[in-house]
Write a structure and sequence with these properties.
Elements: H1 2-22, H2 29-55
Helix pairs in contact: 1-2
Length: 67
């Protein structure tokens, strides 16, 4: 399924970029679409990472070990 999702994402991204190229954005379209996709991917990733780090208990060194 991973390969088919990659192909689907490529098709959707290409379609959106083609529409933006045909519109008023012109040559700036790939940059704008890429930035939009980056935000859509990395914003949830950063949020989930921060939530996971908050939920994890602090790890302390064993009693006989100097750090």
């Amino acid at each position: 399924m991973a390969t088919s999702m990659f192909n689907f994402g490529t098709a959707v991204g290409t379609s959106i970029t083609a529409l933006a190229l045909a519109g008023s954005l012109g040559a700036l379209a790939p940059v704008v679409v890429g930035l939009g996709f980056a935000v859509v991917v990395f914003l949830p990733l950063v949020t989930l990472t921060r939530i996971e780090r908050r939920a994890r208990p602090a790890v302390s060194a064993p009693a006989g070990l100097r750090v």
